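Human: My hope is that you can spare some time for a protein that puzzles me. I am handing you a single protein, as its sequence and its fold in token form. Could you go through the record with me and say what the backbone is doing? Take your time, and here it is.
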Amino acid sequence: MSQPHTTDAVSYPEPLAHPEKRGIELIGASERHGRARDLFPVWAAPNVSVLNFTVGASLILLGLELWQAFLVIIAGSLPWILTGIVATSGPAAGTSGSVITRAIYGIRGNRVIVAFFGWFISAVFLALNWLASSFMGAELLAQLGFTDPVLAPVLVTIVVAAITVLVAVFGHSLILRSYPVVASVLLVIFLLVTAFILPHVQWGYAAPAPLDGAPLWSAITIGFAILASTPLSYTNSPDLARYLPEYTKSSRIVAATALGGALPCMLFTSVGALLATGIDAAAMDLGIESALLALLPAWLGPIFVVGVIINTISLNGMTTYTASMAFQSIGVPIRRIPSAVVVGAIGTALTIYLVMSTSLLDAVNLMLQLLVLISGPTMAIFATDVIIRRNRYNGRELFDERPGSPFWYSGGWHLPGLLAVILGAAVASLFLSNSAFTGPIAAAMGLLDLSVPVSMVVTASVYVALTRWSPARRNTTSNHVGANA
């Protein structure tokens, strides 16, 4: 059934003091505002993150030399370009990315993809980031005398999650206006922390057992998969750009989004790699959060933990905001604000489970690698569709859910899109290498993890090939994307 109320370009006031009521509804031209460069701090704030320290340290623990780790960090940041490309579809269509992907999977097919892939990615990233603040907050509480190893991180998780949901409830206006300040504050805090890390760095560091051959390439590819999984997960980037005027240059949207995410990731992941050279194995076994706080003066430790919590709230506030629109896009009759509360509850439950069952370093590395099987294909196909269509999407037609509508395809399913994602994930699993699962091809190649490039190449290639043979897609591309809402 169609949903007429979602096809009207409604006008809601967007004052900072009131929650954002809009969900996936189209945004009228009169409500479009801002410039592409406004996206830079929106993406920088959530990516000035303690997880970057964790991921950077893991590269050294894999056995890489510093220069090798730096090259992997640069390569792993390149997928941010895809995040930028996908973001351009937001202003073009004037709606959420979870609605735009109806053009890729069909009306019914999109519900399945968003319900499974979108929710899984959102829940995992909410948990991973809350997990970081939970461990850091619990470590600080321990220093203050509250040493309960379970209750402390659980309490921190609940408090941080509640504040995060409030950010998501107030939505786009709060994010756009507050994140530039948040990014600046976090940058100052993390640079201060970096200044106290650098004296402990072993600039002449050499790996205890230098890698070469297959073990070296295994470490490089695993590190790349971990790093690339972050930008590949941001298929929600259209949601943050959708309020920009339709005429905003795509190149500027790509640049602001990609650089906003990539620069802080590259900088502080590199610092994390440097950090690992100055910490012995025994300290790392206690957890990187404990090792990091031990290097800081007493006055800076609490400030850093507050910075970690602020970063967590900014990142998960964005994630919860966009995930709250997923319910609506799959047809669940729920408003965006109650949906944000549900998303927050799911993420909180998963975080509490991880707090009681794993360490921060283990959770981050394992989850990020497994996410590639989902995020790689979904990002690749979204970026490919934007390129194929030359970023021309008709917002009103995306909301037409009746049989025979432009994106109804075959019974509501667009087989080229669905098959491309499934095949991309299936083939990539053969090349995956981590502690939970090693694909047969990865094992045969000496534990090389080629899941990221394989997932993207296979998905994009299959999608392009199948859409060329699909009369329904050809007709949709030629007849229905010429005008934007």
Q: What stands out?
A: Residues 1-13, 478-485 have pLDDT under 50 and may be disordered. The chain has 25 helices and no strands. Residues 169 and 337 are 5 Å apart (CA to CA).
